[in-house]
Amino acid sequence: MVTAAAETMGMSPYEAARERNVQENKRKMEALNLRHLSAVIKEAPKTPSPLKPKRRRIIENAVVVPSPPRRSRRLAQLPEVKYAEIAPHTAERMTRSPRKPADLIYLARSGTVSMKARLEATRKAEELESQLDPDIPSFVKAMLHSHVVRGFWLQLPCHFCHTYMPKQDSIITLVDEKGEEFATNYLAYKKGLSGGWAGFALCHGMHDGDAAVFQLIKPTTFKVYIVRAASDDGSEVDE
């Protein structure tokens, strides 16, 4: 029978037997209804498997013993060198600058300052500087918002710092026109006044647009003269 069917379809007996096995297996698969089961599995919602909690490794009573530094045989017999350095001004703790009562401190000028008023204040400060002793170093600094309102960082002229200021961080004293002294921190690398300058600026009611003359009367002491800038309404703010 297989031979007759093979001859009719033009297939060899082997190909005919193979075709018969394929058809038989196909009927068995359809009887198992596997296509329906696979469709149901694909449509089912996937639920993520719960993650296993990670256990933290806890080392109890762990003592870390620092190992001695590695040294060559040539240096083993020499005393150990300590490279800890102490800043020269560490012993001199800067005292907090005295401040005026809160009702006398103004963080911002009432009104705005025009460029004309700024230039006029700087001109008056330069005129005041010209009347000082020319043998004593001095410079004029126009006050900006970052100097007296926010930040309170006063950058000093680079050429002045290179010539006259200390080469390391120091305590710089500011003396106002009344003779009161205010200690500030001078940062040599950044060439400016940081800690303590805010107290000086607030106590003297300095504002954006004012100008100041700094006269170096001692290696670490400035005499400061403040020149007020007029606001747009023509008024000047006094201390």
UniProtKB/TrEMBL annotation:
Its main location: nucleus. This is TF-B3 domain-containing protein. It comes from Sorghum bicolor (Sorghum). Residues 139-230 form the TF-B3 domain. InterPro entries: B3_DNA-bd (IPR003340), DNA-bd_pseudobarrel_sf (IPR015300), REM16-like (IPR044837). Keywords: DNA-binding, Nucleus, Transcription, Transcription regulation. The keyword Cell membrane does not apply. GO terms for molecular function: DNA binding.
